[in-house]
Design a protein that fits this description.
Blueprint (H helix, E strand, L loop, with lengths): L1 H21 L4 E11 L10 E2 L6 E5 L5 H4 L1 E3 L4 E4 L6 E2 L5 E8 L1 E8 L7 E7 L2 E4 L3 E3 L2 E7 L12 H14 L5 E7 L5 H9 L9 E7 L2 E2 L2 E2 L18 E2 H8 L5 E7 L25 E5 L16 H11 L1 H7 L6 E3 H16 L6 E3 L6 E4 L1
Parallel strand pairs: 1-10, 12-13, 12-14, 14-18, 18-19
Antiparallel strand pairs: 1-3, 1-4, 1-7, 2-13, 3-11, 5-6, 5-8, 8-9, 15-16, 16-17, 19-21, 20-22
Helix pairs in contact: 3-6, 6-7, 6-8
């Protein structure tokens, strides 16, 4: 009888102890660093660069030697951890610390005004101390092209002034860190534009590019400074930049690309129809957004002072405080391609009716253009 009793008693004790431990919650701590990597610049012999701004956002488990790694802390970032209330701010040294997190997979979301979009990472928190692995947030590149004086073609008055106004928007009226490059007049040759695009050092899908062009253009082509106006045997402009060529230059860039065109018949560059929304062929990929200033058979209107009507409202909607609030329909401090397009479109309809109608592809593009 005793031989049967003791094994049974041991089994009961084991089950009781196991039941007690199964109900115990285990915890872990999490430590991370949020910083901005400062790139010494983009080098090109033919390109004039704007002011150097912070390039990337880096999340790591420890602070870096700034002088050695060109990384500066990003203070005031909001770190949200799934299952936890509120957020944890990063300190002046870029460090954040979270204590007593229940073990398991966590979604970590990091927001800061300098970020175009939130950084989201998944992390398995285990019992004891944990560190967040490195991650890189995106940086913006802005290539602004304006050609007023052509080598062979008639002039396009006001386009350089328009381009410089757009440069000012992206240098001085957005919180998003990035690089602004401009090519105007004789610097904006076909070769230099190709070189500029191919030399943009986007390294992650979170990086993004905004390309603005103001100048002469026609059916599916843009005219660089040295466009000679000649056609090849297939009727394609010999010295122009076709939509196919532009996409070929852009395709190596890893992130989203927004193309903004201000010129007569600019929608035709994306295969627009007079009565239909534009349908880009070469640029018909999910990561491309195209905003054009005029449809097929429509001229780009110029206002007093030589400025383009389209760019005049584009700039005001992105930079003037009162107008920017009107453009930002949901008042979230971020202006998307669709928001600025709708703002500009309504302004232009009020001025010239259906004589010049801007177009957008895709029609509900929510690509971020600016944050204020």
């Amino acid at each position: 009888m005793r031989r049967r009793f003791y094994p049974a008693l041991l089994l009961v004790l084991f089950l009781v102890l196991a039941g007690c431990t199964m109900g115990v919650t285990r915890y872990g701590d999490l430590r991370g660093y949020v910083g901005i990597r400062v790139n010494p610049g983009i080098q090109s012999q033919e390109i004039l660069l704007g002011e150097i701004n912070p390039e990337d956002v880096v999340i790591s488990s420890q602070a870096f030697d700034e002088s050695e790694d060109n990384i500066m802390p990003l203070a005031g970032a909001k770190v949200y951890i799934s299952g936890q209330k509120g957020y944890i701010p990063t300190e002046q040294d870029g460090i954040f610390r979270a204590y007593r997190l229940p073990v398991g997979w966590k979604t970590i979301t990091i927001f800061h005004p300098d970020l175009r979009k939130e950084i989201i990472r998944n992390k398995l928190v285990q019992e004891g101390p944990n560190t967040l692995d490195d991650a890189i947030g995106g940086v913006g590149y802005y290539l602004v092209i304006g050609i007023e004086k052509y080598e062979y073609l008639p002039d396009a008055p006001g386009t350089v002034s328009d381009a410089l106004s757009v440069v000012d928007v992206f240098e001085n009226h957005t919180k998003l860190p990035g690089y602004v490059m401009d090519l105007t007049n004789r610097k904006a040759t076909k070769e230099n534009i190709e070189e500029a695009i191919k030399n943009i050092p986007g390294v992650t899908p979170d990086d993004y590019l905004v390309l603005y062009f103001a100048g002469r253009m026609g059916w599916d082509f843009l005219s660089p400074y040295n466009d000679n106006g000649m056609l090849d045997r297939d009727g394609v402009p010999y010295g122009a930049i076709t939509d196919t060529e532009l996409e070929l230059w852009l395709r190596e860039f890893p992130g989203d690309v927004t193309v903004i065109l201000d010129g007569s018949e600019s929608a035709t560059f994306a295969d627009g129809e007079e009565t239909l929304p534009i349908r880009p062929l070469a640029l018909q990929k999910p990561r491309y957004t195209v905003i054009s200033s005029a449809g097929r058979d429509q001229n780009a209107h110029v206002i007093e002072g030589g400025h383009g009507l389209f760019t005049n409202y584009l700039v005001s909607g992105l930079s003037e405080p009162d107008e920017r609030i009107k453009a930002d329909r949901n008042r979230d401090g971020t202006i998307t391609a669709h928001e600025i397009f709708e703002y500009v479109r309504m302004k232009m309809i009020g001025d010239v009716g259906e004589a010049q109608v801007p177009e957008l592809y895709p029609e509900r593009a929510n690509t971020v253009i600016l944050r204020y």
